[in-house]
Amino acid sequence: MVISQVMQLITGVFEGLLGIPVFGGIYIMGSGYTPLFVMLILHIITLLLASRDRRWIAGSVLGIVTSIIGFIPLVGMTLHWITCIVLIISVFQPRRY
Question: Is 97 a member of any domain?
Fold first, then answer.
């Protein structure tokens, strides 16, 4: 497993945790929306690593979008779930050639 896959897995798990109803919202709002900024940075790093390793980047791009508009309560929760699923799936995708 290369570092980009590990980062996709880590960001996928974090997105899943942020998408937990009530808990995720309380954590994000209680932290002053800092987790969304941290996730934005992690998704950008993951995108760069995945691009370098010629891996599937759709999850990271979706994660960047989620981090930007994730402050909207129900929209953010749904986007966190979708991003989590796409990132976990991307871990198991074969390398692009």
Answer: no
